[in-house]
């Protein structure tokens, strides 16, 4: 179950994690079998910018793409899962 009290955006999570890429995130409203692997960050005016990576569904990564709503405060880092292909 995803905690609906998530109040971080992608860029805050990236900074909290030491600005290391890639990392996996999930939105509180998504199914636990769906997530997004953040592979590239471009900061605009802090704490906003652009993020690119791949959607992951049932452990399979899709094609690279820009993530819409990366600046919304509804994200949580996914811990303890191996990235697809690892």
Helix-strand makeup class: mainly beta
Shape: globular
Query: Care to count the β-strands?
Result: 6
Largest sheet: 6 strands, antiparallel
Helix content range = under 10%
Strand content: 35-45%
Q: Quick check: average pLDDT? A: 89
Radius of gyration: 12 Å
Q: H/E order of the elements?
A: HEEEEEE
Overview of this structure, please?
- Strand 1 and strand 2 (34-43) form a beta hairpin.
- The protein contains one helix and six strands.
- The protein is mainly β and 86 residues long.
Describe the secondary-structure layout.
Elements: H1 10-16, E1 23-27, E2 34-43, E3 49-57, E4 60-61, E5 65-66, E6 75-77
Antiparallel strand pairs: 1-2, 1-6, 2-3, 3-4, 3-5
Please supply descriptive tags for the structure shown above.
single chain; 86 residues; mainly beta; six-stranded antiparallel β-sheet; 1 helix; 6 strands; globular
Briefly say what this structure is.
By secondary structure, the protein is mainly beta. 8% of the residues lie in helices and 36% in strands. Strand 1 (23-27) and strand 2 form a beta hairpin.
């Amino acid at each position: 179950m995803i905690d609906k009290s998530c109040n971080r955006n992608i860029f805050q999570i990236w900074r909290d994690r030491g600005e290391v890429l890639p990392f996996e995130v999930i939105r509180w409203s998504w199914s636990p079998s769906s997530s997004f692997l953040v592979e590239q960050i471009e900061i605009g005016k802090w704490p906003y910018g652009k993020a690119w990576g791949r959607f992951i569904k049932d452990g399979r990564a899709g094609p690279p793409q820009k993530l819409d709503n990366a600046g919304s405060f509804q994200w949580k880092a996914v811990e303890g899962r191996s990235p697809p292909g690892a």
